[in-house]
Design brief:
The structure is a single chain. It is built from 24 helices and 17 strands. The chain has 579 residues and is α/β, with parallel strands linked by helices. It has two domains: 4-188 and 565-574, Rossmann fold, CATH 3.40.50.2300; 229-493, tm_1862 like domain (pyruvate-formate lyase- activating enzyme). The strands form four sheets. It has a seven-stranded mixed beta sheet, with helices on both faces. The protein has a six-stranded parallel beta sheet with strand order 8-11-12-13-14-15.
């Protein structure tokens, strides 16, 4: 029996019964709007605690609930008996689901402590700890060591030591809240490998591979054939993007992180090589390798060159790179891909965000990458930025069309709304007037309640001086339709995919208008009845609206995946058994 069980909740625990039009809020990530992909911090927590003798199990309730209507999360929680439950509140979109899962833990196990962690839990710790179902909060982006100390205190009933656990927020037996000093902010990440391999071993030990699955598309046999693995290079960032809660100034403000912590480059190469021994699926390297300097990136690539990795590797660019970087990449890695987030075609808007590279530099980077043999270059754009009108958004879409026509089908652009919430702690959140924003929700409870709004329009946490919430929603659908048409014209998608996406966007726009009409009804009971009638149609849009998820799949080698025999054996053993 594990001593710590990490539970990942869906964004809205009650999604099966509530009529919710989530819209395209998750169209830029592989998961659904329930954000069933648990934080990568689960990997390092599990590995670190297991190394120190604490058994850890991950249960992704969100993906289990999405995978089968018959799965009973409440029944599963009732049957668990760890020393403590850990619930992530990393992304604020889990404000409702995480608390509902905590309530279930306390309902069936009132004496087992519930521990919260994550960036949003850190930012809202003063309010979050006041909920009766929350016993502990560990602040910061590096909770492994404080959590280990807390688990020792829980297991050995050493309550007197709670005051010595760094970063801990806790309540004593009288209900008084204590906030321990925020002193644990590690400057390096060399103790944990931050990848799936230790997690796979845990899943096999507890005969529950299904609960390991990171998102809905992987909850079936497809995940076994495509176990894409992340490798994280750092915590923190050297950049200060105004919209990002993980930016330099944001993390300095509420996570006490004054500078990024980087994993040694030799270890990054080793992580990638280790994963490649088990699978030929793509490996995603999180964080621009050039952040600590060109020497860091060179060391990683030299290690990969010696290993002759066959997997497709995906690299992030946080700004424009020199030509030599792409040439070095081609010399070191057989199959490589890139992604970059320019956010807008308008360089003025990009500069306000804190991104100061030009369109000419973007085009030059794409050209250098493709000439060097890059398999695919993804570009991400956003709706809801400072100085951005809908006309500007549509100009961005047209620039996407230009890039696809110039560079061909290896360039894949996406556009999505900045939703549902402005990142707490980011510069635009802290000083909204400076950037032309009006923030609708302020307290954690307001965010929790907003997630139950019947339409994503009413969950949006902001408006700008240039676009209201209504206009942001309308513009999102308009941009999605146009980009879909351009992808068809440029050969990125076929006629079937084009028609499917167009139909989804049209349906979403119509349902948004119907929700607006229903909300004008004075009788709340009638409102709910009308919304419930629409729920089956809402649910057809759960996977995606404006961006087809299949377009987000990276290329993969055609060779056998060596994870399969072990995982299939575990599934056969646990098939039909609900734990």
């Amino acid at each position: 029996m594990p001593q710590l069980i990490l539970l990942h909740a869906p964004a809205v625990y009650d999604f099966r019964k509530y009529p919710l039009l989530f819209g395209p809020i998750a169209d830029g990530v592989p998961s659904t709007p329930l954000f069933e992909m648990y934080p990568i911090g689960f990997f390092s927590i599990l590995e670190y605690l297991e190394q120190h003798g604490i058994g850890v199990r991950i249960i992704n309730l969100a993906v289990r609930m999405l995978g089968s209507d018959r799965f009973d999360a409440e029944k599963m929680i009732r049957g668990l008996n760890p020393k403590a439950f850990g619930i992530d509140l990393h992304w604020l979109v889990h404000a409702q689901g995480s608390l509902e899962v905590a309530k279930l833990c306390k309902q069936y196990h009132p004496r087992i402590p519930v521990i919260f962690g994550g960036l949003s839990a850190t930012y809202f710790h003063e309010e979050l700890i006041r909920y009766p179902v929350v016993d502990f909060i560990i602040r910061g982006d590096s909770t492994e060591e404080p959590l280990l100390q807390l688990m020792h205190a829980i297991i050995h009933h050493a309550h007197a030591t709670l005051s010595t656990v760094p970063n801990l927020v806790w309540k004593d037996t009288s209900g008084e809240v204590h906030v321990n000093p925020f002193t644990h902010v590690p400057t390096e990440l060399n103790e944990c490998s931050n990848n799936y391999v230790p997690v796979f071993k845990s899943a096999l030990k507890y005969h529950d591979v299904q609960s390991l699955s990171p998102w809905k598309g992987w909850a079936s046999h497809e995940w076994l054939d495509y176990p894409i693995s992340p490798v994280i290079t750092c915590r923190g960032c050297i950049h200060n993007c105004s919209f990002c809660g993980g930016s330099r100034n944001a993390l300095a403000g509420y996570c006490n992180r004054k500078r990024p912590a980087f994993r040694d480059p030799q270890l990054i190469a080793g992580d990638i090589i280790h994963i490649a021994r088990y699978t030929r699926a793509p490996i995603f390297i999180i964080g621009d390798l050039r952040q600590p300097g060109e020497a860091y990136a060179t060391t990683v690539l030299e290690g990969l060159k010696r290993a002759k990795i066959k997997n497709h590797l995906v690299f992030e660019l946080f700004d424009a790179a020199p030509k030599e970087y792409f040439e070095r990449m081609a010399d070191s890695v057989e199959h490589f891909n890139f992604e970059l987030s320019p956010d807008s075609h308008d360089e003025r808007i990009r500069a306000v965000e804190g991104k100061r590279y030009t369109n000419a530099e973007i085009e030059q980077n794409i050209e250098w990458a493709l000439d060097s043999g890059c398999n695919r270059f993804d570009l991400f754009f956003m709706i809801g930025l400072p100085f951005q009108t809908c006309e500007s958004v549509m100009e961005t879409v047209e620039w996407c069309g230009y890039l696809m026509k110039r560079f061909g089908t290896r360039v894949v652009p996406f556009i999505l709304p900045y939703s549902p919430f402005l990142d707490p702690g980011c510069p635009m959140y802290k000083d909204p007037e400076k950037y032309g924003y009006t923030i609708v929700f302020k307290t954690f409870e307001e965010y929790r309640t907003a997630l139950l709004s019947p339409s994503w329009k009413y969950a949006l946490s902001y408006e700008t001086n240039w676009m209201t919430r209504d206009r942001i929603v309308e513009c999102t659908y308009q941009a999605g339709l146009r980009l879909n048409k351009l992808k068809l014209e440029c050969g990125l998608i076929d006629d079937t995919a084009f028609k499917n996406t167009e139909e989804r966007i049209t349906r979403a726009a119509e349902l948004t208008a119907r929700v607006d009409e229903i909300r004008t009804i004075d009788d709340e009971m009638v409102q709910r009845e009308r919304l419930l009638e629409l729920k089956p149609m809402f649910d057809t849009l759960l996977n995606a609206v404006i961006n087809e998820k299949m377009q987000m799949s990276w290329p993969a080698a055609k060779r056998n995946l060596r994870f399969l025999p072990l995982i299939k054996a575990a599934i056969v053993e646990s098939m039909g058994i609900q734990r």
